[in-house]
Amino acid sequence: MPQTADDMDAVAVRTWCSLALDALGREREAIDAINVYPVADGDTGTNLYLTLESAAQAVEAVFAAHETGATAPVTADAVRAMAHGALIGARGNSGTILAQLLRGMAGELALGHDAGRLRRALAVAAASARQAVAHPVEGTVLTVAAAAADAAARTGDGARPAEVARAAYDGACTALEATPGQLAVLGRAGVVDAGGRGLVAVLGALVEALGGRAPAPARGTVAALPVRAAVPDDCAGGGPAFEVIYLLEASDEAVDRLRARLDGLGDSLVVVGGDGLWNVHVHVDDAGAAVEAGVEAGRPYRIRITHFGADRAHPHTEPVQRAVVAVVPGEGLRGLCEEAGATTVLARPGEPPASGELVDAIRRAHAREVVLLPNDAELRHTAAAAAEQARAEGVRVALVPTRAAVQGIAALAVHEPGRSFDEDVVAMTAAAGATRYAELAVAERQSWTMAGICQAGDVLGLIDGDVAVIGEDVAQTARDVLDRMLSAGGELVTLVLGEDLPGSLADELEEHVREGYLAVDTMVYRGGHRGAPLLIGVE
Question: For residue 439, which phi and psi values (nearest 5 degrees)?
Fold first, then answer.
């Protein structure tokens, strides 16, 4: 549980971004399901997640840069990084508006971070987001943001930042519940606004970051999230054919002219940013003209054009039928998985891959059907967002929720491209689920664990994510972990050695299994990974 924060300092900003990313990860599918406005393309939750992911990564980069220094990041560093990360990573109409909301808040919080400044930040955020939209519509995220700012403004001068955040959250929840009565298309579909629902999740994370406790779910909003919204006829089609998004380096005057030109080309126009860097979003029938307008205004780059409702085929080669994309923690496992035919993404210690890297790997696999193996419990939301984005590009993606590399190895071992996609996914999921996983780690400091108090330098044996054994050396701890895992039975032990462990350890552990557990086979791989000295799987 986060600690209570007295003000909106850099640590609180970091915590907020992390909690908001987790919240959007949990609610992404539900938010996608109620996305009927402005286009019923079912990606609002995914776009919000990807935008916030970029913001959170930028904040983490600031803290990483200060790790070797004597000083910690200040609030101004953290909020500016958050705003810039959201700006360059904004996706879709909803993500672009969220980026402007965060930018508006950052401008104020960089000047101060007490309760009064937080109230002002929420007000500036709501106003700047509304200004960024060419034709604001009530009953959308703009309405929810304005209500949050108004509620925050009503808190007294003696209010703490956590109380201001709570007031904003409550105001946003109330406004969200009212959106079906403000926007007819929402009322006919029987849902609240998807972008507004995402903002409520972000504000709930702010309450938790400042107050130390997550707020109760907003009344009425959970019931308003159907499995899939019934899309009214008037938003099922008939709008512009393309979504065009790009970053743009241009002057304020050039952007003013660009807004006027793009407004004449299409709808859902949102232009956010400032200080020479902008994110441009518009729905048009003539995508080329929208890009040309950007060229005339300045230097557009990272141009993304999406054809609504159309699958995008690769322009040069015929896709293969099925592929596997796997995240791996080291070069040894990368080679093993690639020999088995998988496309891999390397996860380095402390640097988990972003959803964009997973999407790029899915594209590199160049297949109509892809099985995605994240091989890390912490990547579940990232992998889900990547899968959703790839599906929007016409790829059939199944996410097998592997929580460790040894589960991925088990899944890959039963992969059979010759059978049906569904049968293959079921078999791979079953193999992964039947594999218990463990890893050894070295304690960095004294702390309380499920197995008792550990000291810095102790070897920890984690089974299925929880500390089960505390030892003094790797070999004995590994034997103790194996004994605990095999006490429940098993047919195959998989050992993946880190790059610093001697091969003799594998021989010792193989002998230990052979002597103590009849009919249990052992497979040994060199993972080439840092961090965890040893990975263990028992099937």
Answer: -150, 155
| Helix, strand, coil share (%) of the chain residues, nearest 5 | 50, 20, 30
Please, are residues 520 and 513 in contact by the beta-carbon 8 Å criterion? yes
Q: Whole-model pTM?
A: 0.69
How far apart (Å, rounded) are the C-alpha atoms in residues 109 and 322?
Answer: 48
**How many Cβ atoms from other residues are within 10 Å of residue 536's Cβ?**
24
- So what's the pLDDT on residue 311? 38
Rounded to whole angstroms, what are the CA distances from 327 to 25, 330, 382?
Answer: 19, 9, 12
Phi, psi angles (nearest 5°) of residue 356: -60, -35
Output the CA–CA distances (angstroms, integers) from residue 136 to 140, 159, 514, in the order listed: 9, 32, 70
The answer to whether the CB of 27 falls within 8 A of the CB of 47 is no
CA atoms within 13 A on the CB side of 2: 25
Report the SS3 class of residue 536.
strand
3-state secondary structure of 318: coil
pLDDT at 2: 54
CB 53 within 8 A of CB 89: yes
Could you read off the pLDDT of 475-532 as tens digits, one per residue? 999 999 999 999 888 889 999 888 778 878 888 999 999 888 888 899 888 876 666 7
Strand partners, 306: 243
Structure tokens at 200: 């409520």
**Residue 69 pLDDT exceeds 80:** no
Return the closest-CA partner of residue 433 out of 467, 403, 468.
Answer: 403
CB 487 within 8 A of CB 453: no
For 24, the 3-state DSSP assignment is helix
Per the prediction, the chain carries an average pLDDT of 87
Omega prior to 38 cis, within 30 of 0: yes
